[in-house]
Write a structure and sequence with these properties.
This protein is of the alpha+beta class. The chain has three domains: about 5-170, Uridine Diphospho-n-acetylenolpyruvylglucosamine Reductase, domain 3 (2-Layer Sandwich); about 175-265, ACT domain (Alpha-Beta Plaits); about 265-330. It has eleven helices and 17 strands. The protein has helices at about 5-15, 65-75, 85-90, 95-100, 150, 185-195, 225-240, 250-265, 285-290, 315-320, 345-355; strands at about 20-25, 35-40, 45-50, 55-60, 75, 120-125, 130-135, 160-170, 170, 175-180, 205-210, 220-225, 245-250, 275-280, 295-300, 305-310, 325-330. Strand 11 and strand 12 form a beta hairpin. The longest helix is centred in the middle third of the chain and has 14 residues, at about 225-240. The chain starts with 5 loop residues before the first helix and ends in a 13-residue tail after the last helix.
Amino acid sequence: MKPESEADLAEAIKGARGPLQVRGGGTRGTGAPLGEVVETGGMTGITLYEPGALTVVVRTGTPLAEVEDALAAENQRLPFEPMDHRPLLGTNGTPTIGGVVAANVSGPRRVQAGACRDFMLGVRFVDGSGQIVKNGGRVMKNVTGYDLVKLMTGSRGTLGVLTEVSLKVLPRPETQACVMLEGLDDAQAVAAMARALGSPFEVTGAAHLPSGDGGQPVTLLRIEGFEKSVAYRADRLRALFDGHAVRIEEDAGAVADRWASVRDVTAFAGRDGDVWRISCKPSDGPALAARLGAEAHHFDWGGGLIWALLPSGTDARARLGAFRGHATRVRGMGDAPAIQPEPAPLAALSDGLRARFDPRGILNPGLMTA
């Protein structure tokens, strides 16, 4: 079913007699094993955009590209740089803003700007009983009671079906450049990224590709802003790593393409095997990557995010053992749950929330354990 309005969606959920799979643009799949599909793509449109207030309100079925184009026309952007999963997963859907929020999709800029969740101002959604719920508003402020805005961001449609979201946006920079360190191993690269991120030069992306340009390791440090400031900071970063092989890419288009490839993990697109996404302490990253023994891997978020390509059916968690973080299978099949199982106390809280917002258990059932 594809409701055209929030009211239609509420009636559909209220009248449901079995499980429902919630789907946005179909770029990632829900992973839920059962249920009739409910698509949000019928609820589209930017309902409010105030460039001066850095605020946009959008129905959740709206294509992400439409939102980004509207912001670009006012020289603004979504700060959290959402990933496009289609190259990696080989899908043909259309990314929607609702799908981005439901999965808290955040790209390389998260290391500096924050995640999607950090820019959420308000939500409207329909819960598992068919009730329409609104929380938050159009400005950043403290809240009382449940902060449903943060709760719904990343809940993957298991607590309710998002119908409208309000987000804070930010100005687009005038230009960008990429400082590249060549030949570092994983440990050296993570140390270098930590040094760059801790510097005063406002690095907005820090990634390491062990098989980068020409198959050789390359560590990427992105800086953005006004042209003169970017040039100055690029030179200062070069000086910070005096003694290393350093080059600077200054063509803004080439830099954007390079970071889009990092964001979308295009190096693993079309290659056989399962893709795992491991979130961890940056300082733990090199040792964890060594434990994985992956066919290929790279680091984002200054080492706090590992993308790994493993043989089909491999359980990355079994190779990693206990660690501070979580591992998610983004592509592939296997006996292990795709999403990291929660510790018992946290799982009890999650179950309680789902029972409150979806008492019949019909929204994306099994998604968090499939």
